[in-house]
Design brief:
This protein is of the alpha/beta class. Helix content is 48%, strand content 10%. InterPro entries: 5-3_exonucl_a-hlix_arch_N, 5-3_exonuclease, 5-3_exonuclease_C_sf, DNA_polI_H3TH, FEN, HhH2, PIN-like_dom_sf.
């Protein structure tokens, strides 16, 4: 059986870059990308995959911006020095035997979600996602595992339940209810993680929560009813697009240790 390693490229690069307190510069970008390349090599050595999907955000507007123009409007843009150095970094990854995927109109998360679910549906073996992005943890419900490269720890069903208070299959509904300030996903006002988890565990899923909200005579019930459209918009925004045309074959993503 095979083993797919899906790497959230910018998740690694941005965290390495931002770990340095120095001001933005070409030198800082160069140093960060050298460290990031070492991180990629360590991931490959640690997991010994048969196939690697290295996904990076293309940049610019995506289908989520078309759905909600204010999506990510508060997020700081990528530093110019780092953005300009990325093509060279992609070339170095190609030199390591990796096929980098960066597709316009979608996020790296969508690329990873599509690839991982396709791999698992075809019964090709294990699927590992290297990322700390909470949105990708929903893939655990389909049989994937998430690897936190920075802490060197596995994230599985039990980890998600302990961290978020719900099962992995309810993570999208949880994020829709509580929103995401980082990405500008509105959610329901004054509903945090604990309240969202309590609602989902009591009712079963988001649709059941909303069915019950009609008779929920509390301030939370009132907000759920009043913000129904915003809530379902939020769910669309946090849900992975899993039908992306990747434009690659498994053979193109095959990885061999040199």
């Amino acid at each position: 059986m095979g083993k797919l390693l899906a790497i959230d490229g910018l998740n690694i690069v941005r965290r390495v870059y931002e770990a340095s307190p120095e001001p933005d510069s070409a030198e800082k970008a160069d140093i960060a990308l050298r460290h990031a390349l070492s991180s990629f090599r360590k991931l490959l050595a640690t997991h010994a995959p048969t196939h690697v999907l290295a996904a990076f955000d293309f940049g610019g507007p995506t289908w989520r911006h078309a759905l909600y123009p204010r999506y990510r409007e508060q997020r700081a843009p990528m530093p110019t020095f780092l953005r300009d150095a990325l093509p060279g970094f992609h070339a170095k990854l190609a030199g390591e035997g990796l096929h980098v995927l960066t597709l316009p109109g979608v996020e790296a998360d969508d690329v990873i979600g599509t690839g991982v679910l396709r791999w698992l549906a075809e019964g090709r073996g294990d699927a590992i996602v290297a990322s700390t992005d909470k949105d990708l943890h929903g893939l655990i419900a389909q049989g994937a595992l998430v690897w936190d490269h920075f802490k060197g720890e596995w994230h599985d069903d039990a980890w998600v339940r302990k961290k978020f208070g719900v099962a992995p299959e309810l993570l999208v509904d949880l994020l829709a209810l509580m929103g995401d300030v980082t990405d500008g996903v509105p959610g329901v006002s004054k509903v945090g993680m604990k309240t969202a988890a309590k609602l989902l565990n009591a009712y079963g899923n988001l649709d059941a929560v909303m069915a019950g909200a009609g008779i929920l005579k509390t301030p939370v019930g009132e907000r759920l009813r009043a913000e129904r459209e915003v809530l379902y918009l939020s769910r669309q925004l946090v849900q992975l697009k899993t039908d992306v045309r990747l434009g690659v074959t498994w053979n193109m993503l095959a990885f061999e240790t040199f």
